[in-house]
Write a structure and sequence with these properties.
Helix content: 25-40%
Structural class: alpha+beta
Distance between the termini: 31 Å
CATH superfamily: Lrp/AsnC effector binding domain/regulation of amino acid metabolism (RAM) domain
CATH class: Alpha Beta
Order of helices and strands: EHEEHEH
CATH topology: Alpha-Beta Plaits
Shape: globular
Length: 91
């Protein structure tokens, strides 16, 4: 399984809609709204690098409101913690 982390810049007034459309794409496992220079982080989990390319270029980049993406492919996972817990803010 290949994991890619996609940084997404979106039109500010469309962030919630863009996030939902990204989450609905097959191969996108999670979408997070974040602070900083990017608006959203989408985690793509697929079986091949060709599938990463297809998801990002043929689907993510074509969502209305997406203005820019930057994709990072993960080489190794060093933590066995659940990703949701890693992104969660304390109770």
């Amino acid at each position: 399984m290949i994991t890619a982390i996609v940084f997404v810049k979106a039109d500010v007034d469309r962030i919630p809609e863009v996030a939902q459309q990204l989450a609905d794409i097959e191969g996108v496992s999670e979408v997070y709204s974040v602070t900083g220079k990017i608006d959203l982080i989408a985690l793509v989990r697929v079986r091949s690098i060709d599938a990463v390319a297809a998801v990002v270029t043929e689907q993510v980049n074509k969502v209305p409101g997406v203005s820019d993406t930057e994709t990072h492919v993960a080489f190794r996972a060093y933590s066995t913690h659940d990703l949701e817990a890693a992104f969660a803010i304390g109770d």
